[in-house]
Amino acid sequence: MINLLVEVMMKVSRPLRSKTGVTILMAGLALLTLASWSLQSAEVDQNQLKFPKQFESWQATVEQQESEDMLAHYPASIILWAGSSFAKEYRSPRGHQFAVADVIHTLRTGGAVAKGDKGLSASCWTCKTPDAPRLMKERGIEGYSGANFVDLGREIKSVVYCSDCHVDGSEKLALPRPHAQDAMAKIKQPFDKQDPTMQGAQVCGQCHVTYYFQPEKSNKVNIPWIFGSTADAIEKYYDTRRFYEWIHPISKTPILKARHPEFEHWSRSTHAKKGVTCITCHMPKTNDEQGHAFTDHKVATAMEHFDQVCSSCHGSQAAMVKKLDKTKATIDAKARNLESLLVNAHYEAKAAWDAGATWPQMNDSIMAIRHAQWRWDFAMASHGLYAHNPKEGIELLDKATEQITYGREALARILNHLSVDNVDYPDISSKQSAHAAIGFIEADAVKAKQTFIKEEVDKHWHPVAKTGY
Question: What are residue 221's DSSP bridge partners?
C-alpha cells in the first residue's frame, strides 16, 4: 500500500521541476513514512519488537498440538466425577496458544445459554487470557465472575500472553490475577516481598494451582489456603465451611474437586528447597544465533532440555528416565487400584440408600468417600506429579486407600444390617461403557457443541477461539 502511494506521488510530482515541487515531494514522503510507522506499531506488539526471541518461542507453543483423551485412558474417572462436567470430557493440556480454543471447544463448557439462565461462570476464562484481568477491572471482580461464560466470549481476543506474567512491555514480573494476590496475602507472602526465584514460580503458580469458585462471591476464583496448601489443610478449610462442588448422583457424597495443584506439590518438593522452579526446568535460558541468552517461552518438558537443566544434579539421562518410569508405574498402579475401590464404594452407598439407610448410619462412609476421592484427585489432577513430588503423591494415594477401605468396611456392615446381598457394579472397561453407566450420551453433547461453535463462535468470536481446530 505504501509503495503504491509513493509511486503515485512520484508521477504527480514529475512535472514539477522547481524547488516547490521537490519540497512537496519530500513532505509527502515524510508523511508516508510516519504512516508506515503508525501501521507497523498498530500491527506489531511492543513485546514482539522488544523481545523478539521470547515472542518467537512463545508463538512456537502452537506446535504443541497433541492432546490425549484422559477419560478413554482412565474410564473409572467418569464414575468418580459423575454429576459434574468433568465426566463429559477431560483431555491432557496442549501448548499455551490453545488455552482459549480448548476451553471453548471442550464439552465441559457446554454451549448457548437461554436468556435469563445462569449458565457457566465467566470465571472459566480467568487463566486463559489477559482479557480476563482487563474485564475484571472494567466490571469489578464479581461483576466479571457473575457474568455468563458465553456472554463474554466476544470479548476474548488474546491467549495466555506476556502481560499474564510481566508488566506489559517489560521483563519485570507481575501477578495480575486477584485470586493469586489474595492467596499470597493469606499466607503472608505478598508478591512484591518475594525474591526473584519465588516470583518466577509464582507467576506460573497463579494458574497452575488448585482453586474453586466461591459461591457467596458470585463464583469468583478463590484459592483455599486459609489453613495451608496441603491436601489436609485444604480439606479442613472445605469441611469447616461445609463446602462441596456437587452432590454425587450415585452415592449422595458431597464431592470436592482438585484442579491441577502443580504449585502446591512443587512448593514442598526437593526442587523447591534447592531453588529449582518451573522456569528452571520448563523455560530454561538458551542462546540465539548471536550467542545472546534469553528465556525460552516454548514451555516444554524438562527432559527436552536435560543436558541444559538436569544433568548437573541427575547425571545420566537414561538413569533418570528409568527412575521416573519406575515411579510412574508405582503411582499408576496405586491410582488404578484406588479408583476401583472408590467406584465400588459409590455403588455400595447407592445400594445402602436404596435399601433404606439413614444419614446417621451413612455419615462415616460418605465422609470416607469424600476424603479419599479428594486425595486421589489432589494427586492425579496434578500434571507432572511423577517428577514434581512423587513422594507426596504416593502418600496421598496410600492415605486415600486407607480411608476408602475403612468406608467400605462400614458400608459392608450397613448392607449386612439391611439384608442387601447383591450390589450392581458398573462396567468401567471403556469410556463408552462408563458413560452409559451414568446416562451420558456423548454424541448428543458433541452435536450441541458443534452447533454452538458454528452458529456463535465461528461467526462472532475472535479467531483465537479457533486455534488448532
Answer: 213
Q: How far apart are CA 452 and CA 458, in angstroms?
A: 9
Comparing CA positions, the residue from 234, 287, 238 lying closest to residue 261 is: 234
> How far is residue 264 from each of residues 129, 230, 241, 245, 283, measured CA to CA in Å?
22, 7, 21, 20, 19
Spatial separation of the C-alpha atoms in residues 418 and 165, rounded to whole Å: 58
Rounded to two decimals, what is the model's pTM? Answer: 0.89
How many angstroms separate the CA atoms of 303 and 322, rounded?
12
Query: For residue range 405-430, what is the model confidence (pLDDT) as tens digits?
Result: 999 999 999 999 999 999 999 999 99
Residue 312's CB: how many other CB atoms inside 10 A? Answer: 8
C-alpha 157/C-alpha 100 separation (Å) is: 9
Cell of 238: 472445605
Q: Coil, helix or strand for 405?
A: helix
3-state helix, strand, coil split of the chain in percent (to 5) is 60, 5, 35
**Is there a contact between 32 and 62 (Cβ–Cβ < 8 Å)?**
no
CA 464, distance to chain mean position in Å, is 17
DSSP state of 117: -
Digit-coded pLDDT (tens) for 49-100: 999 999 999 999 999 999 999 999 999 999 999 999 999 999 999 999 999 9
217: cell is 462471591
**Residue 467, Cβ neighbours under 10 Å: how many?**
20
| Torsion region of 92: left, alpha or beta (phi above 0 gives left; psi -120 to 50 gives alpha) | beta
- Rounded-to-integer distance, Cα 310 and Cα 303, Å: 8
Q: Whole-angstrom Cα distance, residue 297 to residue 283?
A: 6
Residue 197: strand, helix, or coil: helix
87, 81 in Cβ contact below 8 A? yes
How many of the other CB atoms lie within 10 Å of CB of 55? 18
Q: Which three cell numbers stand for residue 189?
A: 507472602
SS3 of residue 91 by DSSP? strand
DSSP for residue 429: S
Expressed in angstroms, the distance from the first to the final Cα of the chain is 32
Integer angstrom CA distances of residue 459 from 112, 180, 454, 455 = 14, 34, 7, 6
Q: Which three cell numbers stand for residue 50?
A: 522488544
Cβ atoms < 10 Å from Cβ of 75: 22
Alpha helices in 187-220 (DSSP H): 196-205
pLDDT recorded at residue 43: 57
